[in-house]
């Protein structure tokens, strides 16, 4: 781990923070959002004259385990790096977490929800979002206790997140008396869901989707086929540009959608509204 006293820039100690996320490829927009947030935090910290100058060092892991390993190795080898913010994809982070642990380098995850990240004994790993089992429990409680849902089709993306989120939902839903009528896996990037929706049994009252990029086309295919059941999904679909915007009117048709947000509404958490008003003038983020 870096000794900040040996890294000076003028009168200010220099501390470097590694930011590893997909900056290119399908998940790039999600990774860039995360990297921008770190950049904003660095700017704010550097505006405070406390004798420390922070620098964010970006590495593009492309959402790929091999690329993630390259980025991790380069940052671990850099004596000026204090710690890591990342990765975005669960499979990538799980593949490299032991490397960071062996190097005594902190790994702070803003978005990773896989249980193994904090259940594997790595004392250098910290997370800022809910685990998949917690998310699944909250969604299942709402669906069964408040909405009376009992018979579900689940559609899962064939990714580490898609499988873990869906597995946890299946367990939680069954514990509350629900039944899984059909369980379907699709490849990431699938956009045609007409035939799949046509295979849904008639005696269901819910569709659950576990994944990130396929939620909007799945929902639109359901509404086009006159399947009006509620579509419930985890925090992989909480953002506007990836789910609600491409889903368009379909998100409000029939029974609509139930999405667990990765964060509370602005204004609920003390200071969040002031923070948002501080962020927007910087021009890096859209007004919420």
UniProtKB/TrEMBL annotation:
Source organism superkingdom: Bacteria
Write out the entry's keywords from A to Z.
Answer: Plasmid, Signal
The keyword DNA-binding belongs to this UniProt entry's keyword annotation:
no
Signal as a keyword of this entry, yes or no, is yes
Q: Which Pfam families match?
A: Peripla_BP_6
Instruction: Report the InterPro entries cross-referenced here.
Output: Leu-bd, Peripla_BP_I
Gene3D superfamilies given in the database record: 3.40.50.2300
Leucine-binding protein domain location is 16-227
Q: Which family does it belong to?
A: Belongs to the leucine-binding protein family.
Q: What is this protein called?
A: Branched-chain amino acid ABC transporter
Q: Which organism is it from?
A: Mesorhizobium japonicum (strain LMG 29417 / CECT 9101 / MAFF 303099) (Mesorhizobium loti (strain MAFF 303099))
């Amino acid at each position: 781990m870096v000794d900040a006293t040996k890294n000076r820039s003028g009168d200010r100690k220099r501390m470097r923070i590694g930011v590893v996320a997909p900056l290119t490829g399908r998940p790039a927009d999600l990774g860039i959002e995360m990297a921008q947030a770190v950049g904003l935090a660095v700017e704010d910290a550097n505006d405070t004259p406390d004798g420390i100058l922070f620098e964010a060092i970006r590495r593009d892991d492309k959402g790929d385990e091999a690329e993630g390993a390259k980025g991790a190795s380069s940052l671990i080898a850099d004596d000026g790096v204090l710690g890591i913010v990342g990765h975005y994809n669960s499979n990538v982070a799980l593949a490299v977490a032991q490397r960071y642990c062996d190097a005594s380098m902190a790994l702070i995850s803003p978005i990773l929800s896989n249980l193994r990240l904090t259940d594997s004994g790595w004392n250098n790993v910290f997370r800022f979002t809910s685990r998949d089992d917690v998310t699944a429990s909250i969604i299942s409680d709402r669906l069964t206790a408040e909405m009376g849902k009992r018979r579900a089709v689940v559609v899962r993306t064939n990714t580490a997140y898609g499988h873990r989120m869906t597995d946890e939902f299946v367990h939680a839903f069954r514990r509350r008396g629900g039944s899984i009528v059909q369980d379907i896996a699709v490849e990431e990037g699938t956009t045609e869901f007409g035939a799949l929706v046509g295979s849904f049994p008639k005696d269901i009252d819910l569709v659950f989707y576990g994944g990130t990029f396929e939620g909007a086309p799945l929902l639109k295919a359901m509404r086009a086929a006159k399947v009006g059941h509620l579509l419930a999904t985890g925090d992989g679909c909480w953002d506007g540009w990836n789910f609600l915007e491409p889903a368009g009117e379909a998100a409000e048709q029939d029974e609509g959608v139930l999405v667990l947000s990765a964060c509370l509404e602005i204004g609920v958490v003390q200071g969040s509204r002031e923070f948002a008003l501080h962020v927007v003038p910087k021009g890096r983020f859209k007004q919420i």
